[in-house]
Design goal:
Blueprint: H1 6-30, H2 34-55, H3 59-83, H4 107-110, E1 115-120, E2 130-136, H5 142-177, H6 197-204
Antiparallel strand pairs: 1-2
Helix pairs in contact: 1-2, 1-5, 2-3, 3-5
Length: 208
């Protein structure tokens, strides 16, 4: 298959997905978002599997990748609904941290233009010397940054799903059309040109 085929496009899409997932994983680690961290980790593994299957002509691996892209799209739709507070969801809940911490998205305090306002604590021991009060001046609210991240992931996943199905169909057609004994040669591999029977008899009974 040439370099401008669906296979090469799928390799590019998997590489792009891998880079986007690694970028997202870094910021989810900084924000202690444990549920997205686990989802990103699984996504990275499946994308690597799909990339390997595409390079090594393994349709089964690509099928696993295609199935996962559908799950990944569903997960990112949930993330969008979570941050947009659709269907009773609240972006201020601890759902993404498994209710073990009150951390929010890293972008909530470090978004473009955001300025943190802190005040000293007094009379409380065992805590840091400063307590977070508010964030002001954000050019873009953090939930919209998270929505854009998820939207980009959905877009790549959908395109990757289409190309994965195409590549699997191409690989399957090539396997069906290829004869593993004789290749593409319509004649048998061990074809022997036999001489006519009467000619053999003539050679056997030649006079001395």
């Amino acid at each position: 298959m040439g370099c401008c085929t669906g296979r090469c496009t799928l390799i590019f899409l998997c590489t792009l997905q891998l880079l986007a997932a690694l970028e997202r994983q870094v910021f989810d680690f900084l924000g202690y978002q444990w549920a997205p961290i686990l989802a990103n980790f699984l996504h990275i593994i499946i994308v690597i599997l799909g990339l390997f299957g595409t390079i090594q002509y393994r349709p089964r691996y690509i099928v696993v990748y295609a199935i996962w892209t559908a799950v990944w799209v569903t997960w990112n739709i949930f993330i969008i609904c979570f941050y947009l507070e659709v269907g009773g969801l609240s972006k201020d809940s601890e759902l993404l941290t498994f209710n073990i911490s009150r951390h929010q998205s890293w972008w909530s305090e470090n978004g473009p233009g955001c300025v943190r306002k802190e005040a000293p604590m007094s009379g409380i021991k065992g805590l840091d010397s400063h307590s977070y009060i508010s964030v002001i001046g954000c050019a873009l609210e953090y939930r919209y940054i998270e929505v854009m991240h998820s939207s980009f992931q959905i877009l790549i996943a959908l395109v990757g799903f289409v190309y994965a199905c195409y590549v699997v169909s191409v690989f399957t057609e090539e396997e069906d059309s290829f004869d593993f004994i004789g290749g593409f040669d319509p004649f048998p591999l061990y074809h022997v040109n036999e001489k006519p029977t009467n000619l053999l008899f003539k050679q056997t009974y030649l006079p001395a």
